[in-house]
Specification:
- The chain is an alpha/beta fold.
- It has two domains: 63 residues, no CATH class; 419 residues, Aldolase class I (TIM Barrel, Alpha-Beta Barrel), CATH 3.20.20.
- Strand 4, helix 9 and strand 5 form a beta-alpha-beta unit.
- It starts with a helix and ends with a helix.
Length: 526
């Protein structure tokens, strides 16, 4: 035995390397049948696969320039990170963006900017920017709601996101006066940290699900009654990542906690169908909206990615005829989001936000229905200039998903669907989640929202307005092509948005329906 150990120890390290490589080569050539490259090129093939696996990271940090990455480039991510950390988010020496590029946005400034006096709400709080409309006011809901923030957290479920991420976001919206959309995974304990909540459900009816997989009105009314943090209810018709497609939650992912929150069985696959069971026509959808609003007292809205407009026009006609319908409409862009989807859906199904929203808004504008509805935009709008454009097109507030994730540490690893998110945000891996410092990350989300609102207010004042709801389609121009150079939004999309009733920021500040009560009460004025 001693002689054998002595023989082993006498072998040089480089010989051991050769032995291991030889064994790998034998395995590749004679035993593994799955990978042609490693079979034909043993050892070298493994190096190729390794380089391919880290290719996105290599391109992100060493190859791509500051403006060319998708879905968010380095400049955009850097602005969010700096804003969330209260760091310098300015640029020096002029823009490095190609201002002649297709669809570049120009916000037209006024010769003399809007001036606020010393008693103005924005003199007291430079980040105060609530929604100019009250959700549910037109339909006289029992509990109307005015969002206290023009920017809010979009629909992202617990289960898709980690517990730590959801908790950090809810504490962040509490500190910034925003609201937090639950996503279709149900209301979890992590959504109940004090922030205003929009309860969102889809075809799976998670959290308000009957035994046969339908919507339980009893569970929904009980949920609202027992959770006063819920300010409105949103019915998801479709989402930008995969409109018209259902999904499967594998049983292996369903823990006891997830099963209780979603109202499903532990360890059993759960199907989210492509269509709803609770309604099968536009009229039935309107009936359901009215039933939920009557039984809960809350405003009720719908969310959808836009494609064909025939059923949307049917909805508008029903609203005209009956005086009933949704209190708000969230328009999602076909650019996709945190939801995993096949490339065919993510790349091609449903319209990008600017095309989808402009088509839908124009339809409701022509039927004189825009005053009844609060329009919410969702589709890479978490930057002040893009938000100014969205307000000019007709939105009343915006939701952000990936931008909110980046504010709490997302590095755009694009592994949301693999359960291996290195930032601990889009994973249920307990070890990875431990990297999220909830108090710190909640502060960062709140600071991102405040920085966003402050900069949007400053852009608005530069344009001569007090609130971005006053923007018109002629206040923003976009580059079209070489023949047209640049044109106003009104020319580009073929309509002028309806005027939003607005009597000054002070009226919004004094509104009894204003959300973010804790933020308004506790936030030190700046």
């Amino acid at each position: 035995m001693d002689s054998f150990l002595s023989f082993i120890s006498s072998i040089s390290w480089w010989i051991w390397v050769l032995i291991v490589l030889a064994l790998v080569a034998i395995r590749d050539i004679f035993f593994q049948k799955k990978h042609t490259i490693s079979h034909n090129f043993p050892i070298v093939g493994h190096i190729r696969y390794m380089l391919e696996s880290i290719g996105p990271e290599m391109r992100q940090y060493f190859v791509a320039n500051n403006r060319e990455e998708l879905p968010f480039n380095r400049i955009e991510r850097g602005w969010i990170y700096a804003s969330a950390k209260s760091e310098n988010n300015y640029e020096g020496f002029g823009t490095d963006r190609d201002v002649y590029a297709h669809q570049h946005i120009f916000v037209k400034n006024q010769m003399m900017a809007y001036k606020i006096d010393e008693n103005h709400p924005n003199a007291k709080d430079k980040t105060f920017l609530p929604c100019a409309k009250v959700i549910g006011a037109y339909n006289k809901r029992k509990k109307p709601f005015r969002p206290a923030s023009a920017i809010n957290v979009s629909a992202m479920s617990f289960g898709s996101l980690s517990a730590a991420a959801v908790e950090a976001m809810n504490k962040g919206v509490l500190k910034s006066g925003a609201y937090h959309n639950t996503g279709e995974g149900g209301l979890s304990p992590y959504h109940k940290q004090g922030g205003d909540v929009i309860f969102h459900f889809g075809t799976g009816y998670f959290g308000v699900r009957s035994e046969d997989g339908n919507l339980s009105m009893e569970k929904l009314t009980n949920l609202v009654e027992n959770n006063p943090c819920i300010k409105a209810i949103e019915i998801k018709l479709s989402q930008g990542a995969k409109p018209g497609k259902g999904g499967v939650l594998p049983g292996a992912k369903i823990t006891a906690e997830l099963a209780e929150i979603r109202g499903v069985e532990i360890g059993k696959d759960v199907l989210s169908p492509a269509t709803h069971k609770a309604f099968s026509s536009v009229q039935e959808l309107v009936n359901l909206i009215e039933e939920i609003a009557e039984k809960t007292g809350l405003p009720v809205g719908i969310k959808g990615a836009i494609g064909k407009l025939d059923q949307w026009e049917e909805l508008a006609d029903i609203m005209l005829k009956t005086g009933k319908g949704p209190d708000f409409i969230t328009v999602d862009g076909g650019e996709g989001g945190t939801g995993a989807a096949p490339p065919s859906f993510a790349d091609h199904v449903s319209l990008p936000w600017v095309y989808g929203f402009s088509s839908l808004y124009k339809l409701f504008l022509e039927k004189k229905l825009t005053d009844r509805i609060v329009f919410i935009g969702s589709g890479k709008l978490g930057f002040p200039a893009k938000a100014a454009m969205a307000f000019a097109m007709g939105v009343d507030c915006i939701n952000v998903a990936r931008e909110a994730m980046m504010s709490i540490g997302c590095i755009q690893a694009q592994s949301c669907h693999t359960n291996t998110c290195p930032a601990g945000i889009a994973t249920q891996n307990q070890w990875l989640q431990r990297g999220i410092n909830v108090p710190l990350k909640s502060d960062r989300l709140a600071q991102y929202f405040k920085s966003f609102r402050k900069e949007l207010i400053e852009i608005t004042h530069a344009s001569g307005y007090e609130h971005p709801c006053q923007y018109t389609m002629d206040d923003i121009q976009v580059n079209l092509d070489d023949n047209e150079l640049n044109r106003s939004l009104a020319f580009t999309y073929g309509y002028n948005k309806a005027k939003v009733p607005f009597n000054g920021m002070q009226e919004l500040y004094d509104c009894v329906h204003l959300g973010g009560k804790e933020y308004m009460k506790n936030e030190p004025k700046k």
